[in-house]
Amino acid sequence: MIVLSFIGHFSVGLLTLLVLLIAYYKWSFLYWKKKNIPYIEPTIPFGNLMNMVTRKISRIEELTMLYNNLKAKGYKHCGIWQLAAPTYFVLDLDLLKNILIKDFDHFVDRGFYCNEKDDPIGCHLFAIEGDRWKKMRKQASTIFTATKLKGMFQILQECGNNMQNYIDNLIENGDQPVNMKDIASSFTADTVGSSTMGIKCRSFTDTDKNFMNHGRQALETDRKGQLRLLFGQFFPNLARKLGLRQIKREVSDFFYRVILDTVDKRKKNNVERNDFLQLLMNMKENSNSGPPLSTDDLVALSFGLFIGGFETSASSFTFCVYYLALHQDIQEKVREEVKRVTAKYNNEITYDCLSELTYMQQVFDETWRLNPPAHTVNRVCTKDYKVPGEDLVIEKGTQVLVTITGIHQDKEYYHNPKEFDPEHFNAENSKNRPPFAFIPFGAGPRICIGERFGKMSLKSAMALLLRRYRVTLAKRTLVPLKLCPTPFVPVAEGGVWVHFQKL
Ligand code: HEM
Most Cβ neighbours (<10 Å): which of 176, 277, 306, 454? Predict the structure, then answer.
């Protein structure tokens, strides 16, 4: 009897909750209609994020298709919903420029979830907000000057040599083809791990690839993980009350331990090293450069740089090698440039020679145009904003979403948008294009802080590779590329399998 009564009450409670939830959704789905701007019809419960559930195509392709459909209708902007949350989807480059730069103080935050109490390492530069972000960003910027980056070039050379030894062994042992993503991930785990956390990761020789795998897990989002992040993003207070973490406990514990161990060892042995971690340690000890950093701040900053740089750089390296293997003439042209430029530097790849590799830069830019590693720019409105020239006020709390891939493949800005053509970035074409038509590193005060480091490490690795090897695609690589339905960085389905041949 008691059991029956309990079931009865429980069912009524559940039904009431369901009715309330549906009513909330219905009310929220009127939002953009009331604002009188174009919108895409949403469905309960995922709003316009249906593909996240079905995973028929990648999120990148889904947003690009949305962009193309809306652009074809001549829309400058549009309303969509992520779950029940109204999201402002921007297409027009002038509106975008206002949001990212001119009126940045209305859009300071990215609206990503972090939980300082239960998961302090997840509160890194990418995720933190408001004044805390402003303070940390200012401090972190001081460690990215040209002189400091030049001081880290030696780390890149050491990691590059490890990569070269690894490929030499592959060739000698006939272990080919090889998945370029594995080489790229090992290289960037080593370079970014070594420079941001100060440890020798040795991903090429470490058979269980402990460090690299933990790095991958930090960004891994299966369907469950993705829903957890979305829940945190749209219901942050409830998520924090429930102790929801951004990163799995095992992964954040691993990185917390790694960073603190290195800090302790350096202090005990009085060792200093030319890397980001050392600069952060100095900043923590010496508060002249701003308010003192706490230990949690130091760990989160160091980890955030690693997370920001690891998969983005690995993806860039992999896709760039794919395009060069596919276009042998372009590969040869980059190789010739590397030979010509390094000849002036005693045949060495130096920090100074990188800026002269202008055609290689065009090739990377074209790779980032077609496959930007971070494919969206996200902001959240932090104070009500009247959109210039429109009868529209974006209210505080509204998410803002921009598809970088959509913009990069827009035929209004690129004459053959689907083709890999580095001439899109020759001086003439670059000059004639609106600046916001190419934003692989985002834009404005929240632009990628690691852009210069990323470019430096990728160009040095590519120079090393092309001077020594010819790269060709193995049969098992899909041409044209197909993207996995992963949510963040683009990943080629089936991998990018290549052969290296010594020159
Ligand atoms: C090489 C390829 C890379 C690409 C394409 C890339 C792209 C991006 C993009 C699009 C953003 C968001 C910008 C915005 O919202 O306007 C970002 C932010 C960020 N990136 Fe990168 N990134 C790369 C490498 C790196 C590296 C090597 C590091 C660290 C050493 C790094 C650290 C960060 C951090 C910490 C942020 C957050 C900045 C903030 O909110 O203040 N990134 N990146």
Answer: 306
Is the full-model pTM beyond 0.90? Answer: yes
441 Cβ inside 6 Å of ligand 1: yes
123 is in an annotated binding site: no
| Cα torsion angle, 140, 146, 148, 150, sign | positive
The residue among 195, 212, 453, 461 whose CA lies nearest residue 324 is 461
Coil, strand or helix: which one is 388? coil
Alpha carbon distance 178, 339 (integer Å): 25
- 440 alpha carbon – ligand 1 mean position (Å): 9
pLDDT in tens, 430-458: 999 998 999 999 999 999 999 999 999 99
Nearest CA to ligand 1 atom 18: 448
Alpha-carbon distance 121 to 255, whole Å? 8
Per-residue pLDDT tens digits for 157-168: 999 999 999 999
Q: Is 304 in the pocket of ligand 1 (CB under 6 A)?
A: yes
CA atoms of 133 and 55, how far apart (whole Å)? 33
Closest-lying ligand 1 atom to the alpha carbon of residue 373: 5
Q: How far is the CA of 437 from the centre of ligand 1 (A)?
A: 18
User: 81 with 48: CB under 8 angstroms?
Assistant: yes
Give residues with Cβ within 8 angstroms of 214, minimum separation 6: 251, 254, 255
Amino acid in position 382: T
